């Protein structure tokens, strides 16, 4: 069965577009950020954007110095962050918010 797109679908799309564009924020090394309240166990944690070269990977691109990493990093969608605790994580750009401090 083929699903037809309804007018309601286009309204949802239009409502979500500003959020998608906002998530396309550019990040730079050294920038202070805070993780979104929707970021799971890392919610509301603060840190600094670091160079992707600080994330060590195995031959398949899976990070070896990021706890719990199980898939290759997609640098177009993710960013490397050193939390204030010193831990390095990767996080989807849409879940990272720039801060003023």
Order of helices and strands: HEEEEE
Helix content: 10-25%
Largest sheet: 5 strands, antiparallel
CATH superfamily, called what? SH3 Domains
Radius of gyration: 16 Å
In total, the number of strands is 5
CATH architecture: Roll
| CATH uppermost class | Mainly Beta
Shape: globular
Number of separate structural domains: 1
Rounded mean pLDDT score:
83
Residue fraction in strands = 15-25%
The CATH topology turns out to be SH3 type barrels
- Which spans of ≥5 residues are poorly predicted at pLDDT below 50? none
Number of helices: 1
The strand line-up of the biggest sheet is 4-3-2-1-5
What class do helices, strands and sheet pairing give? Answer: alpha+beta
> Gap between N and C termini, in Å?
52 Å
Describe the structure.
With 101 residues, the protein is an alpha+beta fold. It has one domain (26-98): SH3 type barrels (Roll), CATH 2.30.30. Helix content is 17%, strand content 22%. It has one helix spanning 7-23, and strands spanning 32-35, 46-49, 78-83, 88-92, 96-98. The protein has a five-stranded antiparallel beta sheet, with no helix packed on it. Strand 3 (78-83) and strand 4 form a beta hairpin. The longest helix has 17 residues, at 7-23. The radius of gyration is 16 Å and the shape is globular. The mean pLDDT is 83.
């Amino acid at each position: 069965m083929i699903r037809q797109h309804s007018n309601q679908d286009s309204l949802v799309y239009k409502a979500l577009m500003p959020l998608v564009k906002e998530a396309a924020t550019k990040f730079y090394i050294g920038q202070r950020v805070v993780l979104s309240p929707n970021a799971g166990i890392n919610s509301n944690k603060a840190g600094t954007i670091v160079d992707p070269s600080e994330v060590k990977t195995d031959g398949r691109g899976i990070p070896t110095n990021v706890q719990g990493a199980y898939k290759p990093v997609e640098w177009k969608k993710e960013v490397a962050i050193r939390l204030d605790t010193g831990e390095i994580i990767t996080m989807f750009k849409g879940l990272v918010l720039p801060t003023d401090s």
